Amino acid sequence: RMGDRYSGVPDRDELTTPSARTAMASGLMTCHSCGLLTKSDSHGHDASCPRCGAHLHARKPASFTRTWAFLIAAMVLYIPANMLPVMNTSSLFGS
User: Fold this and answer.
1) How many domains in the chain?
2) Distance from C-alpha of 16 to C-alpha of 22, rounded to nearest angstrom
3) Does 71 map to a domain?
4) Is residue 21 assigned to a domain?
5) What's the burial of 56, exposed, middle or buried (CB within 10 Å: 0-12/13-18/19+)?
6) Contacts with 54 (C-beta within 8 Å, 6 or more apart), sequence order
7) What is the pLDDT of residues 13-37, one digit of tens each?
8) Can you give the pTM of this predicted structure?
9) Does a structural domain hold residue 85?
10) How far is it between the farthest Cα atoms of the chain?
11) Residue 48 belongs to what domain range?
C-alpha cells in the first residue's frame, strides 16, 4: 500500500488533518525577487531577504486583484478564441 508508514508517502488522511501546517503558519516566506525560502519570525512585518535584501511578503501583494483581472480577461477573450479560425489551409484546388 502506498500510504504505509515505511514507504515515505503520507496517507491521504494525514494530508488533510488539521495538524498539517502551512508555510505561513510555519513562518516560511519566499522572496519574489530571488526565490529564496526564508524562515521569518516577524510574520512579514519589516522582513527582508537575507540574499538580495528585497521586502518579503507572506502572500503576493494584490493577489485577489490579479485573480479578478485574469478571470475578467479570460471571460472577455473566451468567445473570440472559440469563434476565430485557428488555421486556414489552402491547396491548388481551393481553400
Assistant:
1) 1
2) 11
3) no
4) yes
5) buried
6) 31, 32, 33, 34, 48
7) 555 555 667 777 788 888 888 988 8
8) 0.45
9) no
10) 72
11) 12-59
